[in-house]
Amino acid sequence: MTAAAVPALKMQRRSLYPGWFYAPAAVVYSVLFLAPTFASLYFSLTRWTLFDATFIGFDNFAQFFREPFLIQGLVNTVIYAVITSGLKVVIGMALAVMLTSQIMARGYLRSVIFFPVLVSTIGVGMTFTVLMHPTLGMINQTLAMFGIAGPGWLVDPKLALFSVALVDVWKGVGLATVIYIAGLVAIPKDYYEAARIDGATKLQNFFYVTLPLSRPATATVITLSFIGGLRTFDLIWAMTKGGPGFASDTVASVIYKQYQAGFYGLSTAGNVVLFVLIAVLVVPLTMFLNRKQGHE
Amino acid sequence: MRSRASFLGGVAAIAATFVVFVIPFLFILLMAFKDKQQSALRDFSWPNGFHLFTNVYEVIKTRNWMMVTAFINSSLITVISVTLLIVLAAMVGFVLARRKTKWNGTIEFLILAGLMIPPAVVPTIWLLQGLKLFGTLHGMILIQVAYNLSFSIILYRAFIATIPRELDEAAVIDGARPLDVFFRVILPLLWPVTVTNIVVQSVGIFNDFTNPLYYLPGNQNATVQLTLYNFQSQFSTAYNLLFTNILLITIPPLIVFMFFNRQIVAGMTAGAVKG
User: Fold this and answer.
1) A195 and A204 in contact (C-beta within 8 Å)?
2) Which residue of B has its CA nearest to A220?
């Protein structure tokens, strides 16, 4: 009897979790995401007008690595991703430590830091473009009150990319902070107790307990903000449109500009470059972060 | 002594976050109250008069009531795509968490790919044109579903893994048909993570600028984020109107934030820390 019942139960279990549950999601995902991704591999090798595509081999990619402004876009993208994710890790961690300590007005602080995450990126970009105006902007006017001549945040080619990155951090650090808070809260109190008995100072507490044990949170913050930084488009577009000149162009803004100009093949090659860039940088990064995590 | 130090620390933290995070929003608010002349100064000053309502009216009726069209479009896109996302992602998350097959690895790889790979823009436009979906709300909705599926699935799968399997079998023994098990037993249990999904995804889709820019051109298709560009070329940047517009489109996320603060934070950090 049991011998017969087992396959019967197995049968039932199979139909309880029907394979076709994947189907609707799979159709939407494959048609609108996977298919274009695969198509991009071909179209990046063509001169393309949307109506007909002429195969030109690797010319688009050659152009991508020959034109100085395209190379600058590539370099800028990496710089931007490194700066934003680095700052989000450091500031997010600091804020999270502060917010998990016995500080007053915790609710206010947490809300105020997190709210920008939910606000329109374009709205934030436009607001800060006004605030960062070299003469009329509030930031430089405030600095002037203290006798400091503020820089031309968005008009100085050397500074524009960093200014946009700072605004990105302003908008995104709240997310890093809440991820860290969740990570810090999950650290068992015993560790701090043990550290206290061993006579650890506050600084030692942080470097030998908090920092290593919040590594999963660090891994998440780095991965999320690094991918986000590499793909960034809307903030750059709202603030500088890649300018002045090409000083703050990123791969994503180059893709849009080439698309607007009607160079569809080149734009698609940009997409493939961005894809490869993300794969080459993020996959080893996550593997590194997770390997370390396994060690503990 | 110690408590005094921490008191001072607290005051410093409040002051610093006020300057860095609150003042920009106050600036938006003040600008929205000013008239065109005063707003052109772009300083942090008290408005000369109360112009908020005239500004709001001006913003809404600009370009043949584009703001109204935009709010309708954005709401439709957000509501429908989030509904689809929830049903489709919950179904995938359910089977993925429950049924172990040799395909699970591939499926998880595809989910991660969806989080990482930047969408191929022009081929997508080409494809949408072929499907007669380019520049339509339907097309935009399906794009939002395709691009955001991965995140929703990850949220659901993690949560479903915590619901005991015995529950499914108990339901079957009580006479539930397989489909009922999912739609009547499991889906209601997923409510907390569904709320998280609704909140996080709707904020993201409502605030999305890039995808409508590419896939939804045309004035009658405007979404709220694109209305922000109305005041830069048309009038030589009417700052009072620009900031009134920013204020208007910040209200929906603000409402969501006030009611669902906890779920948003839970959703954005879920799975993130456990890895």
Assistant:
1) yes
2) B272
Domain CATH number, residue B134? 1.10.3720.10
Mutate to test the interface with B, among A126, A169, A268 (most CBs of B within 10 A): A126
Across the interface, whether the CB atoms of B94 and A15 are under 8 A apart is answered no
* Residue A167 banded pLDDT, cuts 50, 70, 90: very high
Q: A238: distance to nearest CA of chain B, Å?
A: 9
Q: Which CATH number fits domain A59-295: 3.40.50.1980, 1.10.3720.10, 3.40.50.150, 3.40.50.300?
A: 1.10.3720.10
ipTM confidence? 0.88
Q: Do A128 and B124 touch (CB under 8 A)?
A: no
* Per-domain boundaries in chain A: 59-295
pLDDT digits (tens, 9 = 90+) for A190-200: 888 888 898 88
Q: Do A22 and B92 touch (CB under 8 A)?
A: yes
Q: Does the beta carbon of A175 lie under 8 angstroms from any beta carbon of chain B?
A: yes
**Measured distance CA(B218)–CA(A70) in Å, rounded:** 29
Of residues B21, B107, B243, nearest to A116 (C-beta): B21
Q: Quick check: pTM over 0.95? A: no
A36 to B127: CB separation less than 8 angstroms, yes or no: yes
- Picking from B237, B71, B64, B248, the residue whose alpha carbon sits closest to that of residue A123 is B248
CB-based contact A105 B10, cutoff 8 Å: yes
Listed in sequence order, the residues at least 6 apart from A256 whose beta carbon sits closer than 8 Å to its beta carbon are: A233, A237, A267, B121, B213, B214
Q: How confident is the model at residue A1 (pLDDT cuts 50, 70, 90)?
A: very low
The C-alpha torsion from A265 through A269 and A274 to A279, rounded to 10°, is 130
A268 and chain B in contact, CB less than 8 A: yes
* Chain B contact for A113 (CB, 8 A cutoff): yes
Question: How many residues are there in chain A?
Answer: 296
> How far apart are the C-alpha atoms of B82 and B252, rounded to whole Å?
15
> Within a domain: residue B140?
yes
Domain that holds residue B85: 66-269
Nearest to A175 by CA among A120, A221, A108: A221
CA-based nearest residue in chain A for residue B97: A17
What string of DSSP letters covers A226-295? HHHHHH--HHHHHHTTT-STTTT--HHHHHHHHHHTT-HHHHHHHHHHHHHHHHHHHHHHHHHHHHHHHH
